[in-house]
Write a structure and sequence with these properties.
This protein has five helices and three strands; from the N terminus they run H-E-H-H-H-H-E-E. With 130 residues, the chain is an alpha+beta fold. Helix 2 packs across helix 4. Keywords: Signal.
Length: 130
């Protein structure tokens, strides 16, 4: 009996230290269109992760937000925005929205940024309407 208690306690402690619950760090809606499709030098961007990064630069740095664009607390600095492509890839991407961007050149989306201990680990992108 004592041996079972020790094994159970060990498993509980191992689980508590090894697995941390993900936290929703930020959530915002945004319209990806127009100036979000081009970098700061005017070159056309070609992927949703790049559009997301430029959208946040346009919002926070250049003041070129669409009326539909929401504020986020995470991507206010250049360094934080540079992580967007990796965060998008870590979240698995969204082929449906990527296809919509190729077909229509715009998308209204919901972005959720997840992390651990206040540090972003991945982001997910969803249709913002409909």
């Amino acid at each position: 009996m004592f041996r079972i208690l020790i094994l159970t306690a060990g498993l509980v402690l191992a689980g508590a230290s090894g697995a941390r619950a993900q936290q929703l760090l930020a959530e915002y809606y945004t319209l990806i269109a127009g100036p979000d499709l081009f970098n700061s030098s005017g070159a056309r961007l070609g992927s949703l992760d790049a559009f997301l990064q430029q959208d946040r630069a346009n919002f926070h740095r250049f003041g070129r937000a669409h009326p539909e664009d929401g504020w986020d607390p995470l991507f206010t600095s250049t360094g934080a925005r540079q992580a967007i492509p990796q965060l998008y890839a870590a979240g698995g991407g969204n082929p449906q929205i990527e296809a919509q961007m190729r077909q229509y050149g715009s998308a209204y989306i919901l972005v959720r940024v997840w992390g651990y201990g206040g540090r972003p680990a991945f982001l997910e992108v969803y249709q913002g309407a409909g």
